[in-house]
């Protein structure tokens, strides 16, 4: 058993805590200031110093948010009760046949959606960045993706098609959402060593936000993610999957002119992948290719909940 005085000794700078917990320094500071999650001491030079107890608590809070709890729901719990909540949630996830789905109609997500859309309309990049950053802190990752980021980009696309937004509106929104997704994937990937998944888009598919979201979801679910960006040739994708020993390959298809090409590419990819490597097809146009997916023994997962459920099923099958 660790000595109580030793575990409460303030000795870890915020950069060390960030590396060990997978939380960015900004998130740690906001959790302190807004939710009083931990109370670090200050050094003689006014630097934050955290104890082992603080570090353990932040790890528990991160596990809770990955399991779908909003930080505002759990930050006020004392550490023993927080640990019991996290262990109960993890046990329930392991026993459930499907991954837990986001709470429908989250009011915080709805408010952030409205604020983000207004910021895009106003071409106010700083305000949009602040709204997205705050949402990433306050919302569990599945809720953030399914109830804010996906609806936001769909709304921006719809307004662009109707002519009420221009291409620069879409570029602004895409750039800031992409930056957030990159940061989330990096944060979630720091402390996991689960099965490998390779994420990309099919050849000629340049829209990568769906694939980026898939990579964030997989990392948050404990998978090791190799993200290849968009438009990867089938042979190269299969080679990466083989070299990485991937348990699954996930493709996102958003816009596709020639349906027949994708059907042929899926079949070629299936033949090139080792037996036992799952093939997942998501994105806004995935349902158009259900017949082709069936022939290639691929599973269509065209929303966050379905994708999480399939990742959970694959991990359960491997136990």
Number of strands: 8
Main-sheet strand order equals 5-4-6-7-8
**How many DSSP H or I helices?**
15
Distance between the first and last residues' Cα:
31 Å
Strand percent estimate:
5-15%
Q: Give the averaged pLDDT, no decimals.
A: 86
Quick one: biggest sheet?
A: 5 strands, parallel
What is the helix content?
55-70%
Which outline best applies? globular
Q: What is the SS-derived class?
A: alpha/beta
Q: Taking Cα atoms only, what radius of gyration do you get, to the nearest Å? A: 21 Å
Uncertain spans, ≥5 residues at pLDDT below 50?
A: 97-102
* SSE topology string: HEHHEEHHHHHHHEHEHEHEHEH
Description of the molecule:
The chain starts with a helix and ends with a helix. The relative contact order is 0.09. The protein is globular. The chain is 60% helix and 9% strand. It is built from 15 helices and 8 strands. It is an alpha/beta fold and 319 residues long.
């Amino acid at each position: 058993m660790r000595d109580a005085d030793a575990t409460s000794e303030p000795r870890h700078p915020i950069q060390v805590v960030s590396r060990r917990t997978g939380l960015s320094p900004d998130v740690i500071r906001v959790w302190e200031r807004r939710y009083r999650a931990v109370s670090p001491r200050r050094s003689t030079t006014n630097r934050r110093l955290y104890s082992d107890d603080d570090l353990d608590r932040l790890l528990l809070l991160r596990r809770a948010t990955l399991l779908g709890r909003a930080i505002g729901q759990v930050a006020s719990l004392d550490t023993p009760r927080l640990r019991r909540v996290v262990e109960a949630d993890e046990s329930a996830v392991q026993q459930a046949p499907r991954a837990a789905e986001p709470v429908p109609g989250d009011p915080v997500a709805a408010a952030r959606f409205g604020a983000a859309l207004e910021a895009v309309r106003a071409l106010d990049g700083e305000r949009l960045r602040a709204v997205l950053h705050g949402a990433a802190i306050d919302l569990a990752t599945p809720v953030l993706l399914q109830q804010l980021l996906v609806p936001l980009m769909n709304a921006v696309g719809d307004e662009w098609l109707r002519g009420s937004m221009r291409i620069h509106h879409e570029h602004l929104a895409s750039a800031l959402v992409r930056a957030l997704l990159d940061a989330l994937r990096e944060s979630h990937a720091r402390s996991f060593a689960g099965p490998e998944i390779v994420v990309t888009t099919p050849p000629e598919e340049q829209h990568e936000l769906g694939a980026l979201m898939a990579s964030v979801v997989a990392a948050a679910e404990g998978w090791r993610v190799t993200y290849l960006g968009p438009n990867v040739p089938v042979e190269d994708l299969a080679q990466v999957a083989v070299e990485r020993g991937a348990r699954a390959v996930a493709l996102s298809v958003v816009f596709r002119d020639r349906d027949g090409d994708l059907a042929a590419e899926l079949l070629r990819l299936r033949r090139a992948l080792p037996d036992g490597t799952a093939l997942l097809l998501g994105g806004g146009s995935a349902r158009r290719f259900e017949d082709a997916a069936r022939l290639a023994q691929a599973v269509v997962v065209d929303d966050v909940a379905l994708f999480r459920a399939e990742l959970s099923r694959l991990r359960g099958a491997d136990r």
